[in-house]
Task: structure prediction
Amino acid sequence: MNYPVWDVAFGAGLLIALVAILHVFVSHFAVGGGLFLVITEHKARRKNDAALLGWLKKHTRFFVLVTVVFGAISGVGIWFTIGLIGPTATSNLIHAYVWGWAIEWVFFFLEITAALLYLYGWDKLEPRLHLWYGWIYFGAAYLSLVIINGIIAFMLTSGSWTKNHEFWKGFFNPTYFPSLAFRTAIALALAGIYALITSSVEKDAGLKARIVRWSAWWIVPSLAVLPLLARWYIRRIPADLWASARGPMPTATHYALFAVVLLSVTFVLALLSLLRPGHMHLAFSLLVALVALGAMGSFEFVREAIRKPFVISNYLYANSLYSTQIPGDGGFSVDEVNAAGVLPSAKWVSNRDLTGGNQAAVGREIFRVECESCHTANAYRGLKHYIALRQWDESKIQAMIGGLEFMHNSVMPPFAGTDAERGALAVYLNTIEPVSSEDAAAAAGGQTVFDQNCSMCHRVNANDPLFKNLTSDPAAAGEALKDLTALFPLMPDLKLTDPQRTALVGWINAQRSAKGFGNTAQGGK
Amino acid sequence: MIQSNLIPALDPNPLPAPYWVFKLLLIVTFVLHILAMNFLLGGGVLALAAKWRAKNGGFGGRLFSDVAKKMPVLLPATITLGIAPLLFVQVLYGQFFYTSSIVMAWPWFLVLVMLTAAYYGFYYASFRSGKSAGKAGGVMLVSVILIFLIGFLFSNNLTLSQTPARWAAKYFADPGGWNLNLTEPALIPRFLHFFTAAVAVGGIFLVFVALANWKRDKGYARQVLQFGGKAFMYATMAQFVVGLIFLVSLPRGLRMLLMGDSPLATTLLLVGIAGGMAAIFVMSGALRNENIRAAALYAPGVLAVTISCMAVMRDLLRDAYLSPYFHAGQFAVTTQWSVLPLFLALFAAGVILWLVMMRRYGLLGGKKEIERPQP
Result:
């Protein structure tokens, strides 16, 4: 609202994910690969292995072309992209952590210089000096990870920073060390994975076998310790954040599963490559890299999904609104926007008044300033699909938006704005997937009614309030469901039809007996 | 709609050091970035010109190959030196810079794609400059054009960032971000001003190439010196015209700042112009006497004064453009004493280590340590 929102048709979130995932896949290689270069050079020189040195020289060129070129540009690319898509978060991070980035820039400068001198020095420098450049490269590259990791981990777990705004309190936050260890292991594994690629084009089968076996020493142990490091990492994430990874909004769980499966596949492929190391084929090495890219991407998706609804935990929501009112927030906290309304608060909307005739246009603008940081109308995380699945008509949409912060285990920020603005947003959303009140009333089966109306907050579970507290007496339960806000004040004011309520109650009771939820409540709730 | 209502509010975090610290860092790192960029763009343009001027042999082909081999180093130098001013401009001018970037989001994002393509092109040209020189020339041309276009996009964004009055109409016409700032009268003159400067400084870069070859191959080095020195002189002369057009294209109030209203800005302009003239004078004498020392040391030294004056003027101009919406006093300041000294110490150590690295390699006047060919 404070900044204009870039309307990316296919999804701003997707664009940022694309840039970020490609960058991390290369930048972690830039760290681990640096150590790989110097250790391998030491090893080759100690053993007087001229063939290995010859390959390593070619591998250095590949390394520089991938990391210094693509790694550096995609790193700047993240700057460009987050500034375009999350200017409020970027501005906050810049002002809080500019000295961190300035320090990282010093390391980055040394890193790039050392990488180029190491590359160009292969034929020119005596070995000890050449290795000296290699070690400086690795030291600077690792230190840049040490710095940037603090800022990334801060966004996930801001620790006590939100209270004291102290640089180091936010920097050495609860997930700092597990994240650093985790990323270090990934960096080492990637060093081996990228080496498989350049080994595959070697003609000498003996040399190729030596490189593949050597690479496996980097990949296999690193991947083997990852589960332990992941466990450490997860334990440092506050339970309420991690909760959003489970339950009714399983994005993080899905990606965590992807990450586990793809990492396991990478592990197995690395072991398989040891069966016939002299036969490493380019296609096979690229497959390993591709699977690892998928795993890495999944991991970053998990991190981002867990962080939601925040972009900076307990401070700033993904849609650039501050979670609580703080001095200097410019009126852009949820409470302030609730009180004043979106139209008077937002700087970057063209409609300033809500009239009977412009509801959809106003709703479109509210969607842009409050939802588009994550959603699109009908592409990435598109609401068209979501509404079609749930068959929500305009009134249901309006009711549901009132409880966004409870839906899907609190993965979304609350809607901020007046009731009339919420109505306008509902009118707009109804235009992207028109569902009439008849359509909404058409659902007949109990399961369908539950899926469309309740499943965003409730789960089929003995401890879920719906299954635990709703009376099992069909008539009384049907009556109670007539007024949801009386049942629990934070529930959306949904109006189900009589047959729908009857079907829902019947289905709930059937679930209770089928799953043995035991003692069902006899009270009114 | 009142424009100042559109200016995004600052975020709640105070500046982590006094305003002037960031201003100083911004201007100094910007000068370093612009020098590297000028070597890259100006050097690239002149190398291509030399190559096509002397189709059959001559020094042009060799000069092209020499410069082409430097491009893969000059581009990362430009990028790396550009990250720092990018960081500091966000600290001070984020409200304006983020907004104008969003208004022209797609062209701005495409900078990354163009940069990647240009970078790989430069690598190709450097690997191929000896083997298939024709192809290398074509690829290098494409890369240089891409860098030229990136510069144009930067001019678009930076002029847009200092004219908030233009934002709303552009943004609401296309929130998808397919906008440029082509209606800005100062855009083209400003861009040409920077491009002409790049060619002039590119000429100085060629003088450095001549210097590097001075002892090894005097004949070649002399030709490069004459070519680079003349390019510098002609481009700087052209700059008097281009600069004048740029001055005229500025809004009247801003123009008058440079013409008497602001003693500081006026002095900087006059010193800058005098420095440019003096540099031409020094270069002309150096070329006549084939004095490489004067060409590679004194002329750039005088030019450095001009460039510094211009960089400060550029900054004064930005603040003048933004004066209705921005002033240094708007920031709360809480210096992060727990981090700032660490940065300064690491920065100093980094500079020293960097110099040691360069010198041990035999660069910057250092003596290369014992060489031994390796497999």
